């Protein structure tokens, strides 16, 4: 679970590259449709520049683009780390007609044209007998079966709160979740109450999506002068400072960009480190503002 150079070590002993490149948000497609050649080209460029961790999901509909980019990049499969997510639905899902997580992963692999993914997540905790025909523990059992068959190397969850994690941990699982991917930034230090601390105590690595919020959509807050000051101190961009803060809090940032200079800047994140007092200042000043972009039902906790 700790950051060691360019990798985090997971609780099962495997490693995961310390910064993820996302293919959701700005790349999100509503249908498989035509291949997004801009995404393929940008991913090939990102991989050639040195990105080895790609974040995908069933619902992004970008699996074919990822698979094509991997092939075109010429990089060996074992040198890349690919995440996929089973789309379990929003909290308002009436009745799921989608395949179960086991069948969904097989479908994704066909789209990627790959033999395995490195990490497979339940995208949300909104799974019940009523909506899916199986509960969240049974959904987890499908992921365990995939791991046992070698189709996924590691399994985890996303957008899970403490009580959702407890359901899995209390079921005496054969494989525990190694990751919980949640919205996390200096302006949202807990997606749901206590989740970061609980995950750390239980050996679950937190992955942060939306990590750049304080310098993108959440700009105009108390961190503005702090980030300006620290960017000068370290001779880095404000984006690098705010993403390095994520790493320095023991969390793995999943970010994205279409721009070469920003992709290169992401790759420098493991080459410097913030002083403890600067990490503390960002954490404390960041708590003065809450900025949440996704799963706004959790704003009841703000
Ligand atoms: N599990 C889940 O439920 C979710 C998972 N995710 C995953 O996380 C990934 C990343 O999430 P996202 O919110 O996009 O991450 P970030 O908060 O890092 O934002 C990245 C966005 O900000 C822009 N950006 C990057 N650097 C800068 C900069 N220096 N100045 C201004 N704008 C900048 C990028 O666009 P540009 O091209 O202009 O650089 C990009 O659109 C997603 O793609 C997805 O894979 C996201 C949401 C939910
Ligand atoms: O990338 C994503 N964008 C989203 C918007 C809403 C819910 C989930 C997601 C993603 O995973």
Q: What is the name of the CATH architecture?
A: Alpha-Beta Barrel
Span between N and C termini?
Answer: 28 Å
CATH topology: TIM Barrel
**Mean pLDDT across residues:** 96
Strand order of the largest sheet: 4-5-6-7-8-9-10-11
From the helix content, strand content and strand pairing, which structural class follows? alpha/beta
| Helix proportion range | 25-40%
Instruction: Write out the distinct hetero groups bound to the structure.
Output: NADPH dihydro-nicotinamide-adenine-dinucleotide phosphate, isatin
Query: CATH top level?
Result: Alpha Beta
Per the principal axes of the C-alpha atoms, what is the gross shape?
globular
Number of domains: 1
Low-confidence stretches: none
Describe this structure in words.
The chain is α/β, with parallel strands linked by helices. It has one domain (2-301): TIM Barrel (Alpha-Beta Barrel). It is 36% helix and 16% strand. The chain contains 11 helices and 11 strands. Strands 4-5-6-7-8-9-10-11 form an 8-stranded parallel barrel, surrounded by 4 helices. Helix 1 packs parallel to helix 10 (260-267) and helix 2 (63-73) crosses helix 3 (101-112). It is globular. Residues 22-26, 55, 123, 158-159, 181, 209-213, 215-216, 237, 239, 254-259, 262, 294 line the site of NADPH dihydro-nicotinamide-adenine-dinucleotide phosphate. Isatin binds next to loops.
